[in-house]
Amino acid sequence: MNRKYFRDLPIRRKLIVLLMLTSGVALLLASTAFVVYDQVESRRGMVRSRTALAEVIGKSSTAALAFGDARAAEEILSGLEAQKNIVFASIYGSDGQELARYGRGDPSGKLKMHGAPEDQSYFTANSLFLSRRIILDGQTVGTVYLVSDLSEMQSRLKRYAVIVGIILSLSSLVAFILSSRLQRLISDPILDLARIARNVSGEKDYSVRAVKQSRDEIG
Question: H or E segment at 140?
Fold first, then answer.
């Protein structure tokens, strides 16, 4: 808002704008903090769930890895069909060679890792990449590599954006109604003093007195 324009507004409008602006900014900050916290926790939860999934696949794949049975490993990965967010998965042997893979959203093979990845997890704009070692009798016998899309988190974020927008709109309406009423507690005594001051200066009537309405500075 232009400073000069705001300075020239009537005091009643200034108070309404200040009250609405203050409540709006406070609510926006609170909503933003909640959404950011939810996104951080959602990412942590997603890493935990994908780690648990990788560990289940790893435990199921120990025999296939021990015998180099690629067909059995592929059958294990085919169970990921039920996991709609998993777009790519692969199992690597201890020698770093890919034993089996599962792919739903990677026709060009860009998601494939060259060599067995280390234990890690990281996010990109649209995906979570996670790899976990497969341990048998204290020895690393292979690695599970998973790529999950973030469609669930993104749709959740969109829902939150709509909800926050609705809350802000309703809150702004309520703040406007309340501020329109409450600002009179401050503006009415000031406007009354201004009116009396105009009478004194314009009509030279020094007998006019303001009625005390409160015990604050204006009163």
Answer: strand 139-149
